[in-house]
Structures are given as structure tokens and as C-alpha cells.
Amino acid sequence: MHSIKELKxxxxxxxxxxxxxxxxxxxxxxxxxxxxxxxxxxxxxLLKKGAKIILITHLGKDGSASLDPVIKRFxxxxxxxxxQVDFFENVRKFEGEEKNDPKFAKTxxxxxxxxxxxxxxxxxxxxxxxxxxxxYLPSYMGFQLExxxxxxxxxxxNPKHPFLFILGGAKFSTKxxxxxxxxxxxxxxxxxxxxxxxxxxxxxLEVGKxxxxxxxxxxxxxxxxxxxxxxxxxxxxxxxxxINKKIDKVKKDETILDIGADSVKMIALYIKKSKLILxxxxxxxxxxxxxxxxxKILKLVAKSKATxxxxxxxxxxxxxxxxxxxxxxxxxxxxxxxxxxxxKGTLPGxxxxx
Length: 354
Hints:
Layout (H helix, E strand, L loop, with lengths): L13 E5 L6 E2 L2 E2 L3 H15 L3 E5 L11 H11 L6 E3 L7 H4 L3 H8 L4 E4 L10 H5 L6 E3 L1 H11 L9 E5 L4 H11 L5 E4 L1 H10 L17 H4 L4 E2 L3 E6 L2 E6 L8 E5 L1 H13 L2 E5 L5 H4 L2 H12 L3 E5 L1 H10 L7 E2 L4 H9 L3 H4 L3
Parallel strand pairs: 1-4, 1-6, 4-5, 6-7, 8-9, 8-14, 9-10, 14-15, 15-16
Antiparallel strand pairs: 2-3, 11-12, 11-13
């Protein structure tokens, strides 16, 4: 793969830059511009070298969303003149994008002289704007993509020890490959979020009305592995009340929403002795309870001396709410892309640049 630093002459070159500005928008207002800001170093570098930039992004799943709020926020935070950067339309508006149609990819490629991918968070998608364009143009990595690969690879190749992996979120079926892979290289894997419910259910404990993933069961080999660390208590919703209780005291009419206070104290000890901390996914249903234990533990990781690499859209959302992004070694822009990279060591969008 080639970095944009290798480009010698960019004067008046048309650069097609794939970014991911698929940001959360409510009532026409952007709630979090984290991904927009992360693309700015690449954009500013290309402009400084005299390039003309065409930005390609998607917004929403079906391509029907207008890019107007994104474009407005981009020019506000970047302070770049609208004459310097052009936006292509919401690329998912076109049927050929998700089908990776060669004709559509060639149409996109014809707009420029060089292709740059700085959209790590969509690089797990085999779409025209991600894997199609590189077939027709000289292709390079942007700075954010380069940083994502560098930091995430550091957890795969000769990681520091003690190595703590904090794994939350839902969809056990998508997290199973990570657990199996990282049991070989980590010292501890702390399980939280809805993933915990799957473990508790396998142990024969009551999880009440809590979310579980019935598509995959936790094997006894994983459950009994000494590297797996489970919370000792949880926060449940009982009627209209939130109650902290031991994991074996959950009732049938209750819902587990978070890990408990004793579990926060327990993981603090692991954080303190770790030299590398990898985190993916929230430890509770923060939409219902606020930042909760996830926020408390993120603050502990932020204060630790360990190398800290954080990924997962919901986790990053909490970090941004707490305004502590600069306290970690690296915060990934990816959600599903981060999971796929950690599990497989590469992504289709990265392979396409080789």
C-alpha cells in the first residue's frame, strides 16, 4: 500500500477522496462531527500540495438523505473555501455503489486522476467507491486510514503485556471470532454489554428480559477459560427502578442494563496493571441509563499509563460526550470495520489499494 506522502506532484491533480461522513443527524442537526474532523489532516495536506479534491461519502443506508447538513458542517469546521473542495452526491443514491458495479466504478474514476481512501469505517464494504475505483486509478491511503492500520495492527503483532481486552456491545455472533482469536494473545478479556447476557444464560443464570443472541452459544471452552473475566454484579431495571445486584440474583421480570459498581472496582485493578488496553463496544445500554459504567471505566483507562486503543461507534460516541478523546493513544473511527479488521487483519478496501 502507498501513502499519500509518496505523491510527488499534485499540482492541479484531481483527487477523488473517499471519506466517511455518515454522521448522526437529528432534526437536521449533526450531533457528532468526529469523523469529519478526522479526515481534515488528509484534506489539508492534499490542498497544500495543490490538488483539486472531490469528496465522496454516503449518508444513511439507502442514499435518500441530503448531504446539505454535512457539507455545511464540513466547511464550518474545516474553514476551507467551498471553491477548493467539491462534494459528489450521496453515493448510496446510486444502485451501482453497493453492487460494486464496474461501470459505476469507472464513471466515478473518470472524475479524477488519483484515488485516496481515508474512509476506514467503510473499508469492510465491497462497494464501488471503496474497492471499484482503485481498479482504474493510482490509489493511496489517507492519513486516517494509515493510522487505523498502524494502531489496530499493534494489537495483533507482538502486543505489549499485560494485555487487557474490554469487549462489550451486542451481537455475540460477530464478537465470537474476536474472542477466539484474542484468547491466544491477550492476558485478560473482560466481557460486558449484551454479550454478558449470553455468558450468564450459558451458565444457567437468569437474565430476565435482557437481550440475548440465540444464533450462537458460548462454548464451555471459552466460558471456563481463565482469561475470561465476567462482571460480578449488574444494574437491572426492575419496574421503574434501577437496582444494583449480584449476577445470580436477577429475576425473570428484570432487564440487565449495565455492569455494577463492584465490577467497576474489579476492572479498575486490571486496568492499573495493564500495558495495553483494547476496547470495543459499550458495557451497558447507555441509551437508557446514560454513560453509566462505560463512562466511569473509560475515565479510568484515560488516566492509566497503558497504551489504549478504542473502537466501536457507540463507545466513541460516549468518549466524545465526555470530551476525553485526546486522553487515549488512539480512537478508531470504525464500528463494523474495526471488528472485521481485528478478526481478519485486513479489509477489502485496504486490499484494493495494493
